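Checklist before submission:
- one chain only
- standard amino acids only
- sequence pasted in full

Submission:
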Amino acid sequence: MNSNRKTGIIVGVLFITAIVSSLLSGVFSESIDNPDYLTVVSANENQVLIGVLFQLTLTASVVAIPILMFPILKKHNERLGLGYVVARIFEGFFDVVIAISMLLLLTLSREFVNAVAPVTSYFQTSGALLIALHDWASVPENFPYGLGALILNYLLYKSKLIPRWLSVWGLIGATLMLATGVIRMFEPSLIYGALPILVNEMVLAVWLIIKGFNSSEVSS
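Returned file contents:
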């Protein structure tokens, strides 16, 4: 098995890891969305910590994917290949911010529960700010994510490293993702625009694991 084939498999696994980690992070940290989060988060400490772990796993996967793909992409366009790396690093930065906000909320919840006579208004204000940080960090994250997907699928389309129908799907999904980012600035709860690119990445992952990159184009 040559190095490019191994890269395809690893990148495919990382795409799946990123998607699954993102979903599981939301599942295990759902107590943050509870109206009584000041007490519920502390009561579900282990679940929140697992959610943070999945969020950090997502971050590591997001950053590792472009770094692994850069040696292949730079053969077709080094500047855009580097742009893909930079875009996903920025995406990873916002993922880290989300993880930190979850840990800070857990700390605040512990303090609230352990306080003999907590000043409720203080804890509610601090909690509201942390929840806002958690929610709003996911909004600008859409832009480097969408931009990275746009760059990647453009390069995949031009290079024919994968079937063009798959990269065209990715280009459409990336464009919808960028549009969703703009809309979420006014309606943060809107997430359905991310579905096309998420499904595309899952299909891409399976393709890379089973088929790999087009070997004739990788070596060109």
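Reviewer check: Residues 45-114 form the longest helix (70 residues).
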